[in-house]
What does this fold into?
Amino acid sequence: MIIAQDLREVVEHLKRVELPIATYLVDTDGRFLFCNRQCRKLLGLPPEGEVAPSILDFYAEISRRDVNISRVLEAEDRGESPPRQDLHLKINRRDIFMPDHAESVRKPDREEVIGFLGCLADLTAEERLRKELPAGVYRLDADDTIVYVNDAFVKMLGYESPDELIGRKVEGLYADPVHDTAFEAALRKYGQVVDYRVELVKRNGETVFFSANTYMLVTPEGGYAGREGILTSIDEQVRLSQILEQVPLATYEVRIKDGVSRIVRCNEAFKKMFEFGAESPIGVDDRQVHGSDMETARYQAEIEASARTGKPIVGFKMKGRTRTGRQITMEVNTQVIVRGGQIIGRTGVLRDITEEEGLRESEQELTQTVKELVYDIGSVLHAYTSTLLTARMDIDPALHALGPDPFGRDRLLPVEEAATALVQPARNLAAALERLLAVPEIASAVPRADFVIQSVDWLRDYDYQIPAVYQPTALRERVYKLAAIFQREDVPKVAASNLQELRRAMEELLRIESLVRLHWARDEMLDMDRQVLVMRDFVTSGIRVDQPRVVADVNLLIQSASRDLLEWARRRGVDIRFEIPSPYPLVEVVERDVIRALGNLLHNAVKYSWSRESGRPPWVLVWTRTMRDMVAIEIQSYGVPVAQDEIEQDLIFQIGYRGSMSTDRYRTGTGIGLADARRVARDHGGNVILRSEPASPGARLEDYTKPFLTTATLTLPILKEK
It folds into this structure.
């Protein structure tokens, strides 16, 4: 604070010194008493003469001045330097952003405030960059309280405006506050952190992952004054990495530097396969895991051929060597990375096919590989791509590695088809087990004989006892238990051919089950694209600049909404049928919002469809009808029910809520589509309602095991003739 008898004393002093920065003095009402040349230039005032306006004339929001004054006085009362405050001013109809460093002018008694002395600087370009940057920019003060966020930050966390975040403690945004403590500790130690992964909580409670690049703000004395940084979303990569973290095929990435191919990334299965133990494979010359120089040369020829043709290496067999010197035979599936005509590396999947490994090691590797590939390939590819499409493409080598695939590659794998494909391998295992038990020495000495005998009948009847969606897991667990029994030392080593037949039957059943799980993982990725798009568009829709309404015909809106969904529906085996009578009603709408709302309803209808009676493929029916001055667009699907209480209580229209039946057959979703569609319709004077009733006449309304006809109806006002 500045002590003076009156403001004239301060004015006279300011006139005698020529400060190199924009300086001003105002009384408590904001009237200018002094304004130097730099300040006049910034504010667009005459270079000479009296300054008539008040500083309030320049505030974009006059109410902000009271807030700014309170912060200055509170800091001075605590004995601290007044904080920097960013002013949003209007100068000649332009938005100007200026940091303001102001302090109070008080009478000698130090109680009465008679004015304020401040300094300004034009940071409009900096502020505009922060606002328009497609990444989240934020600043915290010394107490880790949020003092600034840009529009992108607000959107990324699903809020409506910066005011909802400014003034909050940052630890409240962390999914786990312990991570904020670790983040701050790293920042204080190094002064900055780069590409630091953080998990934050959005306004709707959903957690999302970001990469943080942050530097520490320091006081003149070198103390902690807060932090400032940028967040970029890595949620899709992290989620995909988590999905693809566990499967028993060894995944790896190699990069070539100075002519040497070195391992830069691998999963746990890779480390185990080559017996690295506590040693890290990262940085190791990959030739060290090849069986010989001849094998390396043979593999290099395949790599060069793959680079020329652009085709991946699939099913290539070669000898390998573990870190303990043990020789193994492995199947290699590789995608060569070429940039600028040069081979710079490769990613791949390896499978140990050494016969001497035995059933237990092969089944552990197979199962572990299937888990890890679903979760880990994303991280292998993260260095050079972050798209879901690339991750889907890199599942293909794993599918090839598992041998003949009975399922098609250009469509989704229904639960019923997966269950059917498992029946015969399960029956074959039952027959092999029965033949083995017919050997007297085995039948009399096998451990847990009751369980083994019961497994024969179970393998023949499980598909009548267990829902189809749970059958793959149940079969896998049963095979593991049987394998553990027949690998025990006390099992007689007789009937070698029968034991070999049993091992082959177990391996084949595990192979088909692994293919099912990989197909389901790839199918789920297809659905992720739409869900991420819907959520992103929903979040941004509430904070976009209002768009003008245009006149559109209903048929064009429906066709625009369905255009991007037709291919996805075809892959799911669902036909979208239209019955739109002409003439087509005209409506006045925000086109983008209504197309999104219709797309949400169509997407739900396709996703929750079942095959029709007698195995007929499913279809979704879209039609329109007019009711006085409204047009109703109706979308009907045959399949997953919606509980009546969820419709009657409007639960199904709450943001983030997913119906109790919505997880049928592992279907995923965000719980946003219906809520967003209703909001859009009501913004236009219409509505969205839902009906769900048994598809078969006479069926019970509460029997949700049977198919239902679910109809979503979106209504809009018809444009009146003027």
